[in-house]
Every structure is written in structure tokens, then in C-alpha cells.
# Entry
Amino acid sequence: MNKLTSTLLYSLTGAAAIASLPSCKANKEAETPQKMNIIYIMSDDHSYQTISAYDQRYIHTPNIDRIGNEGVRFTNSFVANSISGPSRACMLTGKHSHANGFTNNATTFNGDQLTFPKLLQQNGYQTAMIGKWHLVSDPQGFDYWEILPGQGDYYNPTFIQMNGEKTQVEGYATNIITDKAIDWIENQRDENKPFCMLLHHKAPHRTWMPDTCDLELFADKTFPLPENFYDNYEGRLAAQKQKMNIAKDMEIVYDLKMADKENEIHDGMYEKWGRAMYSRMNPAQKAAWDAHYDPIIKQFKEAKLSGKALAEWKFQQYMRDYLRVIHSVDRNIGRVLDYLEEKGLLENTMIVYTSDQGFYMGEHGWFDKRFMYEESFRTPLLVRLPGGKKGDVAELVQNIDYGPTILDLAGIEKPEEMHGESFLPLLKGEKVPEWRNSLYYHFYEYPAEHAVCRHYGVRTDRYKLIHFYNDIDSWELFDLQEDPTEMNNIYGKPGTEDITKKLKTELVRLQEYYDDPIRKEIVIE
# Structure
């Protein structure tokens, strides 16, 4: 795969060369070709189901769709570890979690290790990171950064600046992060250098607090329940243990905003945080919030819901708030695209839109992520490369590939320690015969919130094999062609012996290839 890099020295447009070559001595004043800029936009927990380029059941996202319409929509894009901090570490380092050391959100990212922003910076790029970081340690490899502490807040968020100073900014986080990104491009960057900006939104992370201007969106819409909303998890032991069920685990006050003024509604361990989020607002924000939620709270109290009626009310409330937050993300991405077009930067800038992982929109009755099941393992990925391919790419790609791809675009050779591969040839519309045909996944965060057991697995174009370990020893096998919603675990069923053997062999190969120290003894019969 590395041999591909040497053939990709120039961009697809004459005005935007990918690599800058030294001027010849005979013509020292010849203009050096300009490298491509990169804007990498990543949201937190944005499900592919709620991007209309992928799924039109729930919401129209014209600005996110525009990136794919003018570029590439990856239809088989996945993560290596479906949880926020570890996923970000995989993206930055191009390595699986065991190799970059950030296996779960309780650890601290070692910023001294090699990352693609550091390599860009060392090769003449100006680099910036604005928004949600969520890696505990301070960013390295950036000429400028301004980040949210931890998860950050939706309303009147605090930002940490490079000098360590903390500043609270009044407004809504998605708007503010976009403002800061545009301001850096407009007023703070060196126009003589190519730039790479990481623009990371907090949204739509739990607790899905909409902007005041979006509160009434979807108020009259009823969303269809997923067919497996009432999944009983038969044959899937780990799924029976989880605590991310909308009916049982989604909190009325914290998640669904039922923080009544009378303090009569009590539910769950996070109630105090649900009430504290409201206290962060200014008077105008509170007034708009109350005008929307107070009538819903009153109706909820009067209804005295229970059982399936309560579960389905929770689902509708969750969907409305989540999609309102997505609407704001899409609107702000439109602002970025319009700005780039106005300033003549659009045709010399690669634009990436993705999420740190997928998310459950009621499938299996769930919210959140973590599992290797499709909704959280799969992530949206849309890339606009000027002069590049337009259309779909079906090859299996993973977030460990982002760094190598960006380095390839900049004409920088991928370090051997990076596990990922550049998909720049795919963006150009080239065929890559030796492209991977399987993906490796490993989730570590247990015991922890949502009680998703540790597991690793392999996915091919048709099959998925998962091994849950640590507190349990359980295997799951799915035929994604016959069972796309992963309801029927066929592991150990008659007729699956050959495919199980092949998948276990591939799983062992991937663990050895990536040097995952777990490399447990897998009996291949």
C-alpha cells in the first residue's frame, strides 16, 4: 500500500498541487505550487441514520449532504473503538487503541507520540484545533488551539486557550465553535502557508440541548419506532447486560429536560446535572427554554405514563431534541462552506465531515454507542476533494485511515507505526486492488457507564464475528446480508462451521498484524 504514496505528488487541479517541489536553480523565482488546505469537521455521536445523504427517514441535512454531493460518500466507513476519546486518539495517531495507549475515557492521551498534525506542522502547514478535544492532556502539534474542557457545555461554554486561560463565551456552542473557526481562517492564519483545521463540535452529544431558535422544530412530528425497538436480546448475552436502554436507562430530567420548577420529578443519578444545565443559561435563554419545555413538562406530569407508553414517549422526545441539535450542526456547516466559497478557498481545500462514532436512534431499544453492532461501529464519512471523484465509495475504511490520507494529500510519507492506510486513491476514483477486505475492532471500557462488555471482533463485507471477554466469554456471529439488524446470533449453529473458522483465522491474523497484545488463544476448529 505504501507504494501508492509516491505516485500522488500533485493535486487533481492545476492550481492546487499536493506536494511542493524545490524550485530549480535556473528559476529560483518560479512560484512554488500551493499545497491543499484541509478542514476536518467532526461531530460527537452523529449517527449516519440522521444524515439525509445516508437516510432520509428523519431529517434533511442539505449542507452536510453538499460535501458528499460535491465529493465522495463512503458507504462502509467504521471506527476502531466506538467511544469518544479513544476514537479521537485513533484518528490523530492512525493507530488502534492498544498502540496509542488511549483505550478508554478514564485514561490520559500521551500527546508526546506521533500524530498527523505534528507531521503537517513539521512540513510547512499551519495547524489549528477548535472545539471538543476530550483527550485530557493539552493538544500538541497545533499552532493554535482553543478547546472545550471535558465534554463542554451547550450553553455559554467555557473554552481553554493555549496559554491555559479559561474564558466563558455567551451563546450556543455550535455557533461559537463555528465563529471561532471562521475567525481563525479570516484573521489569524498565515495566508502564505497551507492550513489544516480540526473543527470539532460538541453536538450532538448527550444531553442533546437544542439552540433556542430550533426548539420548535419537529414538535408535531412522530417518528417511526425501529422494528427492533423492543428487542429482547435473545442469544446475545452482552446485550442483555447493557444499561443504555431508552425505556429503562434514559433519564427523565437529565436526558429529556423534565426539570420542573416544582422539583416534583425525580429520576436517576444524573438529575442534579440535568437541573444544573438550566442554571447555566442567561435570562433570555431561560425564557425561550421555559416557553418550549414548561408546557411539555405539564403534559408529562398529567399523563402519568408507564410501560410502553412511557418508553415510546421517551423515544419521541429524544428524537426531537437530537434532530434539533443536528439541524444546528448542519446550518453551521453551511456557514463554513459559504465562507470558503466567498473567499475563494473552496477549490483549494479538502473538506471532511465525520463523527467520532455512530449512535443508536432506538435500534435495539438503545441510545449511546460502544457496541460493535452496525449503528455504533459504522460512522458517516463525506469528503470533498477538489477535482476528485464524485459519488460513492464502497471500500471498507476506518478512522485509523484519516491521518495517513491527510498526510498523503500533503505529500508526506506515512510513518510505519501508523496502522491505517491512505484512501486518497479512492477519493481520486482510482481502483486499489489490494485494499483491505476486513476490519478489526476492540472496545475496552468495562466496567463503566452503560455496562457494555469488553469485546473485539472482525467484520468483512458480509459477516461479523465478535468475542465478548473479561467478565463473560461469549461469541456472536452475524450474516449482515440476511440479518442486517443483527438480531440473530448464528454462532455455533449448524452450517456455520466453515465461515466461523475463516473469520477466526482472519481475526487472529488481524490481531497479529496490528500487534494487539490481547492475542488470546482462539481455538480454530
Observations:
- The longest strand covers residues 37-43.
